[in-house]
Structure formats: structure tokens, C-alpha cells
Write a structure and sequence with these properties.
The protein is an alpha+beta fold and 348 residues long. It has helices at residues 31-45, 54-60, 112-126, 146-153, 173-184, 204-217, 232-244, 293-308, 324-333; strands at 19-22, 67-76, 79-89, 96-103, 131-139, 157-167, 191-196, 247-255, 261-270, 277-284, 315-320, 336-347. The longest helix is centred in the C-terminal third of the chain and has 16 residues, at 293-308. It is globular, with a radius of gyration of 23 Å. The structure holds coenzyme A.
Amino acid sequence: MVRGLSAEPLTPTRRRPMKIRQLDGTGDAAYPAWFAARDAGYAHDFPGGPRWLEHELQVYYERSDAFDVALWLAEDDGAVVGAAAVAMPLKDNPTLGEVDIAVRPEARRRGVGTALLRTVEDEAVLRGRTRFMVDVEGPLGPHDSAGTRFAEKHGYTRRIVEVLRVQRPPFDLDGLARLEREADAHAADYRVLTWRDRVPDEYVAEYARMTARLSTDAPLGQLDYEQETWDAGRIRLREDRLARMRRHVWCAVAVAPDGTIAGQTAIVLAAGDDSTGLQEETIVDPRHRGHRLGLLLKIANLRTLLRDRPGVRTIWTWNADTNTYMIAVNEKLGYVPAGWLVGYQRDV
Ligand SMILES: CC(C)(COP(=O)(O)OP(=O)(O)OC[C@H]1O[C@@H](n2cnc3c(N)ncnc32)[C@H](O)[C@@H]1OP(=O)(O)O)[C@@H](O)C(=O)NCCC(=O)NCCS
């Protein structure tokens, strides 16, 4: 090696210390790097699991009338190695902070996650939040991962366990039609309607009532969560956000003889991307249970989704392990277990 040819005196390069920096919302120029670090962190612990697309999460973490949000990144030696967010509901649950933290695999066990979590919690406490929740997910197997160990190390306790299930092609539409015919006999008084994206004006108030109910009717385990406040305006706000995420929503509802909504279900799928469908928010009003509406709604909705998007590759759904009725419906539809979610909470 030839030495001494440099015209400049050689200065030792200094490693820059780890730095936590708050983003100026999801429009910040650093958002793509924030997203890349978060995505790398989650993908490492659950390869093949359901994933957010960059532009979807950008809208999800926008501030709105319904949520205040703050985002931070961790930089180590100039590279973004970790990402954190806290979402703080404004219309209900006024002391709750929903925490999201991920660290790139190559930067772990150096205190980055801890530094991000402290920053998130300190800031959220200043904004009146004293109840923190975080979800950790993993593939089939024991409910144990870097995320569960990290959460437990920081005083979070397990409040709910959910099973993540997935449905993939081929979809047995003939088999589903047979199930539908059997179930129809139990639901003769109800009318099933389907639509995409926008709740028709005549049902929006009812849809809001059922959406609020869903927030606490689905099993919550030991999570301390208040019923959400929904009205027509908030439904429209969500539709607007989903449109800006470039996501479509397929929806089926059962209308009771008195014109109220007896049950509803929805599947979300990105426009132009068939990889990740999300089966969301199925609820049957307790006054209308026992008529197989859960099964009928899900079959009707899947049929319209497949008519519009026959190439869909996965549909994911989460159920509390105690929600035996919904799990039985999902298994009839062809969902198979694919992973787990543990919901953690810490009160400060
Ligand atoms: C969870 C996660 C954010 C931790 O990031 P990190 O920077 O490695 O965390 P820290 O270095 O601050 O770890 C703090 C403590 O958590 C515990 N911990 C973290 N990872 C662990 C692991 N793989 N095994 C056992 N304990 C672990 C340890 O007690 C650790 O302290 P120690 O290193 O002195 O033993 C990171 O593993 C990750 O991104 N996981 C995937 C996303 C996720 O699950 N997010 C939800 C987090 S609640």
C-alpha cells in the first residue's frame, strides 16, 4: 500500500452518536427513510406477513380531526435505523397512545428501540396520554419474538392474543354458494346489500352506529379501551382517507325488516395491487344474532370482491382466540392460521 500521497492531513473519521429526531408529519422529506426503516424492522420479524405500502401508511399517520400523531426516527452514524409513531385518538379514548416502533435488524440490541420508546412515551404523557398500547405480530409458532421480549422488558403486559388467518386462491365459490343456500333459510327476513367505497347516504348514520359498537363488541381481552365515537362525518372522513391511500373497500350489510343495519362486513384492497386484502370489521347486532348473518355477509362480500378483483392473492383476518363464532365462520370460508398478534398495554 502506498501511503502519504494525500494532499490533506489525515483526520480520523468520527462516528456520529445516535440521534432521535421528530418528523414534521408524514409530509416530511425524511418520511420515505422513516418508512423504509419501519418496513425492514417488521418484515424481518414476520417475513410474508401483511404489509403496509409506503403511501398508505403516509395517509394513515396523517393528523386529522380523529387522531393526533407524532413520528420520530433514530439516526445512527447518519443512517436511519429506527422508526416510531404514536397515534392519539381525539374523539374518544382521550388518555390512549397507540405506539408503533421498529428497528432495522442490523441495528438491534444497541438501545435504539428503548430510546425511541422513551421519546414516544415522554411526549405522549405531555399530551395527556397515560395508557399505551402496542401490537406485536409474528408467524405461526410460539408467541415470542424480539417485540414481545422488548415490550415485556419495558413494563407492557399481555392483554389479548389474536390469531391471524389468511385465505388464498383458489376460492371455492361453488362450495360457498352451497353454504349460502343452507344459511339463507335462517335469514329470510333480511336483505343483503353490497357496495364499494362509499356508504350510501341512507345508511351512513346506521353504519356509524354499528361501527362504534364494533369497537367494543369484538372481544378486547384485558385491553382497557372505550367505545369509539362515530358519526356520519367520521365515516366520510375515513372514506376520504382510504381514497387517498388508493385503497378500495368492498362492503356488505344485512338490512333488517325495520330498515336498520343488522350486520356489516368489509374487505380492503389496494387499487392496482392484489397482494394484500384485509378482512375487516364484521359485526352482527346482538338483536339479530343466530341468523347466520356473519357467514352470509362474508360470502356475499367475497363474491363481489372476486368479481371485481379475481387476482387477489391473500386476504388476512385477525380474531381474538376466544371469538369462536367468528373463527368457525372464517374456517368455513377457507381461512387457515398464519400467525399471531399479542396486544400489550402499559399504564403510566
Ligand atoms: C422490538 C424492537 C423495536 C427492539 O429494538 P432494539 O433497538 O433491538 O431494542 P433495545 O436494544 O432497546 O432492547 C431493549 C431490551 O429489550 C429486550 N430485547 C430486545 N430484543 C430482544 C431479543 N431479540 N431477545 C430478547 N430480549 C430482547 C432486551 O431486554 C433488551 O435489553 P438488552 O439488549 O440490554 O438485553 C425490534 O426488535 C424490532 O423492530 N422488532 C420488530 C418490530 C416490533 O415487534 N415492534 C413492536 C415492538 S413492541
